[in-house]
Write a structure and sequence with these properties.
It is a single chain. By secondary structure, the chain is of the alpha/beta class. The chain has a single domain, classed as TIM Barrel. Strands 1, 2, 3, 4, 5, 6, 7, 8 and 9 form a 9-stranded parallel β-sheet that branches. Strand 6, helix 9 and strand 7 form a beta-alpha-beta unit. Helix 2 packs across helix 9 and helix 7 packs parallel to helix 8. The two termini are 39 Å apart.
Length: 376
């Protein structure tokens, strides 16, 4: 991204409505030139392996303190049961999502892990991913936050892909009063290190921005530019999510304003035009029932949708009905297609996925790399 084009996007902060509509048309053309008329989603089962975390994000309702009666680590039996339900309903993706390193802060978390025979959440996560591959047809996608090199080496052999939201590069959010105060794992340096290490180890990776949490427009542009530069170096970022903040009761941000539709549309369109066209652009379908607006801003993917489990991160927002989502796409001339946890381009690049996992992916994919009719 040259400095002139960066300046252009920075100046777009207060763009009038006609300019927003113009870049949405440009973003749509960019999307169609690379992705055609297919809009994708992943049929998944959501496994919140633990809802404990050493971070204290001010917007989060997912995390429970170890002293809470709601704090838990999923048992092996709970994981197995959830996976079985997902397999019966033809899910392909097993999304393992968990709070970051609670055992490093809380003795109770460490004791709960010890009762399972492990010293770290990542050790238990690897065991559950191994179980998934050995006992089901599902394919693990891991979302466990910041990772060091040892973590990636440990988890890549048992997963098809990994993810971590960059959220923001704003250091202001780490200061007292900011949403990421007392959140060591939200330090931009650590999150960028994870993105780069995933690239170095050739992991198909998902990242993205959480908008409306106190960042500036310039912060968003910087984050998108940084994601794109890292991808240009390693070629591993398969999708970027633009997620709008939702205020939740019983949090410090319960009365914080949410991004409006124009803000979301503008951010999506700019992301589509700034990012490499090969990077999939996603907006969560259950956070706003604005499917047609988001389609017109250049997205090509709705992310994971579960017929089994709720969205444990945003439990107040139900997953959309896939048939209704299909109709909404069709009304704008698009075809809703099911994809796998790994995007088609990476299925032909063996260095990105271990052979035993890649063979499972290919068995479920058609010539275009999306889910074939036999597995649908």
């Amino acid at each position: 991204m040259n400095r002139k084009s960066l300046r252009q996007w920075l100046d777009f902060e207060n763009a009038p409505q006609p300019d927003i509509e113009k870049i949405c048309r440009q973003a749509t053309a960019c999307r169609e030139s690379h992705w055609g008329k297919d809009i994708t989603y992943s049929r998944k089962v959501f496994l919140p392996l633990t809802n404990m975390c050493r971070d204290e994000c001010l917007y989060c309702t997912f995390v429970k303190h170890p002293d809470s009666p709601l704090a838990n680590i999923m048992s092996r039996q709970q994981v197995a049961s959830t996976l079985q339900q997902g397999q019966q309903l033809k899910c392909k993706e097993a999304l393992f999502s968990l709070g970051e390193k609670p055992e490093q802060r809380y003795s109770k978390s460490a004791e709960m892990l010890a009762a399972l025979g492990h010293k770290s959440m990542n050790d238990y996560l690897r065991e559950m991913c191994e179980y998934t591959l050995e006992n089901t047809t599902l394919i693990p996608h891991i979302n466990c936050g910041t990772l060091n090199e040892a973590d990636i080496r440990q988890l890549k052999p048992v997963s098809a892909s990994m993810g971590m939201m960059l959220e923001s590069l704003s250091l202001k959010l780490m200061k007292k009063g900011g949403v990421h105060y007392r959140c060591p794992d939200k330090a931009p340096k650590l999150r960028l290190q994870t993105l780069e290490l995933a690239g170095k180890h050739q992991v198909p990776f998902t990242t993205g921005l959480l908008i409306g949490i106190g960042e500036t427009w310039a912060d968003r542009i910087e984050a998108l530019d940084t994601i794109n530069r890292i991808h240009q170096q390693y070629g591993h970022i398969q999708e970027v999510i633009i997620q709008n903040f939702r205020a939740k009761a019983d949090t410090a941000m319960a009365n914080h304003p949410e991004p409006d539709l124009d803000d979301m549309m503008k951010t999506l369109a700019v992301a589509r035009l700034m990012l490499d066209p090969s990077i999939s652009l996603q907006a969560p379908p259950n956070l706003q029932q604005r499917h047609q607006h988001y389609l017109s801003a250049g997205i090509n993917d709705w992310g994971g949708i579960s017929p089994v489990t709720k969205d444990f991160i945003n439990p107040e927002c139900a997953w959309p009905n896939i048939t209704e989502l299909q109709k909404n796409c069709a009304q704008q001339g698009y075809q809703l297609r099911e994809r796998l946890p790994v995007y088609p381009d990476y299925l032909q690049r063996p260095e990105f996925v271990y052979p035993n996992i890649n063979s499972r992916l290919i068995a479920c994919s058609g010539d275009d790399g999306l889910v074939n009719t036999r597995c649908a």
